[in-house]
Amino acid sequence: MWREARPPPTACGRHCLQSASAADLSWFSDMRNMFVILNPVAGKSDASAIRRALEHRFVSGTWAYEVYETTGEERIADVVRAALDRGFDMFVAAGGDGTVSGVASGLARRGIPMGIIPVGTGNALARELGIPVSIEGALALLTERHDTVDIDAIRTGDRFFVLNLGVGISALTMRDTERQDKRQFGVIAYIWTGVSKLFGVQPHRFTVEVDGQTVRVHASEIAVANSGAMGDPSFRWGPDVRLDDGRLDVCIVRARTAIDYLRVTRAVLLGQQRRSPNIHCLSAERNVSISSDRPLPVQADGELVGHTPVQMELVSGAVRVIVPATDDRRQVLSFVGEK
User: Fold this and answer.
1) If we measure between CA atoms, which residue out of 123, 131, 139 comes closest to residue 190?
2) For the chain, percent helix, then strand, then coil, each to nearest 5?
3) Domain 2-151+319-325, CATH 2.60.40.10 — does that match?
4) What span, in angstroms and rounded, lies between the C-alpha atoms of 75 and 79?
5) What pLDDT digit, counting tens, does each position of 256-299 carry?
6) How far apart are CA 9 and CA 143, in angstroms?
7) 156 beta partners
8) CA of 178: how far to CAs of 75, 97, 175, 192, 193, in Å?
9) 139 and 57 in contact (C-beta within 8 Å)?
10) According to the model, what pLDDT value does residue 10 have?
11) Where are the alpha helices (DSSP H) in 186-227?
12) pLDDT by residue (tens digit) across 11-49?
């Protein structure tokens, strides 16, 4: 579901509100209170540069903002929920997909809009939604004309994820890619780690339950995709996997040899996943569970979240995200799905 937002006036930092006199606060009822969650070590980002950009963008007007820098020790969703109780009515995730996921989890089912300043390694959700990947462009989107879209989410336990959940090579890749390599080489660091895993990982025996239907398979990867994005724009789980389609695509990858993996890569690059003998996809509209012959790491939105077994459910329209406006009202999600 898409909504158009009128362009608000140029915005203001919280220090402006604190220095204003009582007479100057006649416009307070129209003030937007923005809470920014900034991951200072995401990708190649410079936290001080982001703070300067915020100060430059929000120099006067009817906005107030507060910045929270993550430490890696907290649960971002809990930080967001505490800020909701303080009356903030817009939240901005400044970081990578893990930061975005944490903010989205805290906002799930609240109807409060989330903006994204994509400064991580992959920035898959931002790219999927057409959000500018430059700091200035992303900030301009927040204060100028834009739309909002309600996207689906994957819920497991008390956490919500917006991109995908995977067991197999993807989780091993996330686990073993060093932070320094991600900052230095970006997405290439993930690709290098993933390739190094291909020749040392044997398929596992999985039991997958999709909306009550059970299948038992040997596979090297089980991916539950809410978004088609796989990190790099060239790689997608499928041309018809969308963030707002009310379903999850469960992709079972069977690959054992180098030739198998080359076939999988070719099918992904050509958008022929549904025709590949090495990839089998199921559709879920309610819930999915995955168990394995032994505990295996599980990743969700690029972060390790535990081990198998894992249960999850689809939550439609869970998170409201600020996205670029489109004059012809054609949804950005449809455009991405057609690529």
Assistant:
1) 123
2) 35, 35, 30
3) no
4) 7
5) 777 777 777 777 766 667 777 888 889 999 999 999 999 999 98
6) 7
7) 159
8) 21, 16, 8, 11, 9
9) yes
10) 33
11) 187-198
12) 333 333 332 233 333 333 455 789 999 999 887 778 899
> 335: buried, middle or exposed (CB in 10 Å: 19+, 13-18, 0-12)?
exposed
Q: What is the dihedral of CA 313, 314, 316, 318, to 10 degrees?
A: 60
CATH top class, domain 161-316: mainly beta
- Phi-psi map region of 111: left, alpha, beta (phi>0 left; psi -120 to 50 alpha): left
Return the closest-CA partner of residue 169 out of 280, 263, 256, 276: 256
What 8-state DSSP symbol labels residue 158?
A: T
Structure tokens at 284: 């879920």
Contact 64, 32 (CB under 8 A): yes
Q: Tell me the average pLDDT of the chain.
A: 79
Distance (Å, whole) CA 31 – CA 17: 10
Domains of the chain, by residue range, sit at: 2-151+319-325, 161-316
Burial call 141-180: b when 16+ CB within 10 Å, e when fewer: bbbeebbbbbbbbbbbeebbbbbbbbbbbbbbbbeebeee
